[in-house]
Amino acid sequence: MKARLTRSALATALLCLAAGAQASSHREAPFITTVPKVDATDFYMFNSYETGRAGYVTLIANYQPLQDGYGGPNYFSMDPNALYEIHVDNVGDAKEHITFQFRFKNMLSNSGAGTSLNVGGKMVGIPLIQSGAVANVKDANLQLNESYTLTVVRGDRRSGTAQAVTHATSGATSFDKPVDNIGKKTIADYAAYAAKHVYPVTIPGCSTPAKVFVGQRQDPFAVNLGTIFDLVNAPVSVITDPSLINAAPNTIGDKNVTTLALEVHKDCLKSATDDVIGGWTTASLRQGRLLDPKPGSGHQASEKAGGAWVQVSRLGMPLVNEVVIGLKDKDKFNSSKPSGDGQFADYVTNPTLPALLEIALALPNTAPTNFPRNDLVTTFLTGIKGVNQQKTVTASEMLRLNTAIAPVAFAQQNRLGIVGNILAAGNDNAGYPNGRRPKDDVVDISLVAVMGGLCVANGDTDKLGFGAACKPSAVPLGANSFKLHDAVDQAVVPLLSGFPYLNTPIPGTK
User: Fold this and answer.
1) Is pTM beyond 0.85 here?
2) How many CA atoms are closer than 13 Å to the CA of 87, on its beta-carbon side?
3) Which pLDDT does position 4 carry in this prediction?
């Protein structure tokens, strides 16, 4: 099926993006700042555009924000006491029906005894996670070996049917994670080393082999982060001049994240009657934590965790919890499920971001005045009819992807996704908000929408169907709303041409 996108769909797409702007989801809620190992930064879901991979869907969940390449000596292993999940709703009821669960195990070498050196006749444990150059899976020079299991759950994430995902060739149920990019002396060719950790896998119930990769990557998001959170500390003349779209440096361009990436055939994700799927990622911790005042030798030996799983991180559409949900409800949102999103409706019908931008830019009376934003509620929580709306519609926040819309090669992708494609009269219908690709620049489109560009386009005759109140006179910025950007260009971020798509991480030394 090839979706036909009209100007009305363009407006809907813009509205769908208005809920998020200014940064990926780094440190977005009070509690999550205390447990960065389970802090989700970005979620991507798109039709694979690597040559020869037509029909596949790539799902990427990034965790552990703002990693410095030099962040040793422990670097950024994943939490063995956490549960990381990617959920898929292929029914349209705002509930997960397929869940991919990642559990990690971090083991010291020599069966947990670690690596020791003979120093003056005594064997003494070394302080680093490596004792020499590293090039291979399970490298003998690694003191800390990181591995994980992958489980698919059909039905409810806790009570559904769980089955192990296995290596497509060996049948193994455990997969090795590459150590982080310590530096050139330790790992001379990190790209080649990491590529050895891309595994073909068999998913029970899926006849087509899939792929999995877990490891450190360069943060793929581009944003003028410090400037934005410092009350948009930039001249209005800059952020309203399209010729200055790449005038500022990407403030997180030298940071890394930890990526959980899957590539699964679309027939293993969608239902037989609907090509559209919804997706989001969560992380959970055990309800109880006991800290041992006298921990024994080992790795991460101070904590004893137990009890039921408690969700502490949630991410679907980008930036929702960061700049839409109020501070007092950020932890609540992170613990919630899409089926309960009605409790957060006021943050969408009466968003505070435009009013904050008025204050930040010292431009009073510039926020749109068409309240309540019922058009935003409808389009943001249901998907775009004819593009990425499921046949059964349940209002809820998640990323939605039409798996029947053909992918577009990287070089031809419009960085503004569906919006830019419509404006350019192009052929790229596979971008945000129809899923999300790494190249899609959600920030600039969001700024346009949140400051009223939709109502300018809607005109005085409601030609795009957003209601009589959504009209140019409700947008003090007028046509200038179309010129807004954050002065950082998402399209120039380095990416790979194929799975896992995200670039090799920044090394600790060069």
Assistant:
1) yes
2) 29
3) 38
